Amino acid sequence: MNTDNIQIEDSSFRDNQGNIVYFNNRILRVINKSGKKNLDFINESGLLENSIKKNFLIKTKLLNQKDLPNFFSKYENVLESDIIPFISYPYEWTFDQLKKAAIHHLDFQIYLFDQGAVLRDSSAYNIQFIGAKPYFIDLLSIKKYEEGEYWIGYKQFCENFLNPLLLGSLKGIQHNNWFRGALEGIETTELNKIISLKDKLSFKVFTHVCLQANLNQKSISSPEKMSSKYKNLKKLPRKSYVSMLYQMKNWILKLSFKKEKTIWQNYSEENTYDSQENNEKELVVKDFIAKEKPNTLIDLGCNNGNYSKLSLNSGANSVIGFDFDHNVISAAFNEAFEKDLNFLPLLFDAANPSPNQGWNQKERKGFLERFKSDALIALAFEHHLIIGKNIPMDQFFEWIFKISKKGLIEFVPKSDFTVQKMLKYRKDIFHDYSEKKFEELLNKKANIINKTNITKSGRVIYEYKAI
Length: 467
Hints:
Elements (H helix, E strand, L loop, with lengths): L5 E3 L9 E6 L2 E6 L1 H12 L2 H7 L6 E3 L14 E5 L13 H20 L2 E3 L7 E4 L2 E4 L5 E3 L9 H18 L4 H6 L6 H7 L2 H4 L2 H19 L1 H9 L6 H17 L20 H18 L3 E5 L5 H9 L3 E6 L2 H14 L3 E5 L19 H4 L4 E4 L3 H5 L6 H11 L2 E6 L5 H7 L11 H11 E8 L6 E7 L1
Parallel strand pairs: 10-11, 10-13, 11-12, 13-14
Antiparallel strand pairs: 1-2, 2-3, 3-5, 4-5, 6-9, 7-8, 14-16, 15-16
């Protein structure tokens, strides 16, 4: 067997029990000596099989190492997991998505506790979405419960889940930019600095934020004294441990984001298309999807997901949508979750997408490294970059072709009301912005398969295939 296609996942270096390995488009988890005992417990207790059946854990199976290249013989065990169509990060999730992930984590903890097990960490990165459904992906985070132990991952849970949710619930501040800048989440001491005295009067906030922030500060100022206190802590009764998990879950379930009206939240109802033009646009999308039947489709500027849902109904297997408006992505996600659609909407600023970052700038991969597709649709999207963000038109096409070699792109001319509105309070420096120039640049690196005029204002949808 060829071993040239074996690659260790850069982000799995933190796990001392094993690593993620890519091999021939498969996702394998290799287990070393320090992880064997833990894996034996997970497997022999039935937790592996039952956690999958209950939709907590991504589908995973043990492999026969004799069927694999010699590279894998040095490991104790090798497992294979289902492929996650798109890896996303908590700083690309809305408040509602992070909340769903938090509840999934806690529900899994509660289930495991009934089976004599717990999770040894609480990283939000251990949860991924398939469509809009959350799944736990880090099998080796499961460990046997030791009588009297405390919630090991409590601090991490607060920083990865609770604190970002409180930031949105108490202050109406989106967690995304902060989380992206601080990959381990929002520190409790930092949150404590910005919440008000009124916020702190809540018993739960006082306990999980103020008190914890105070303890953190004491640990820094008097490390030996605090270390001595921790060593002398009484064992935590099983009943108290479970009670803490339930209390945290019930609290998070009640949290909601302080939403404000956003520019694009009503775009699907309040746009410049009349009914005939809208029908024409839908027909173009239907025909393209029915012809291509993409396994994975990216919808850039998906808004509330109308064209993503249309694409699923027309033959696309899975869709990932991107938009920078929190309200529309939240609405799209909640609908996808309730209807069990194979559609994952994510927050996304195309002019400032997620970069490569973390250790060695490889731990968390950037947008272009993760999101490739069989096809894309970019409808009423390009002018937000070219006009709105001053992105050169030729660079726009280069970027698009990195995401997908074929798709639909809608061109919005200056004669359109939306562009006129964008230029109302700024100087028009876009002298080359025209349908002719757009088509000329597109033709340089792609074949134009179809061109359809869809509005009286001059909007055009191009079907392209990159050369």
